[in-house]
């Protein structure tokens, strides 16, 4: 009986076509390289600022129309060192500088909890300076 030519469309795939060179199956579409974290340091900074600002606006009416902005670094140091915020009363805005707030922490305090405390503290102190009050006066029963 004569031999029929093989039809590749019905034949099983060759080992090399389905397996990698090491004999294992390739990755499926479901398995992908690890994705970057959904929430990074900058995202956490923004969320922490937003929560503190929301609290302050609800507590002090003087801050309702004030814009809180985030900058990376101040343009230059001032006489007391590197500023963590800048007040612009005429423009009704407060600019908080992310890098000095997060990076100039005391040694041994560079963890998530201390970074959050430093961020909230900077927001409270900048807002207090803007309205001319002490940061400790910001409380739900004050105002």
TrEMBL record:
Residues 15-25 have a biased composition (Basic residues). Residues 1-34 are annotated as: Disordered. The lineage of its organism: Bacteria, Bacillati, Actinomycetota, Actinomycetes, Micrococcales. This is Metallopeptidase family protein. It comes from Microbacterium murale.
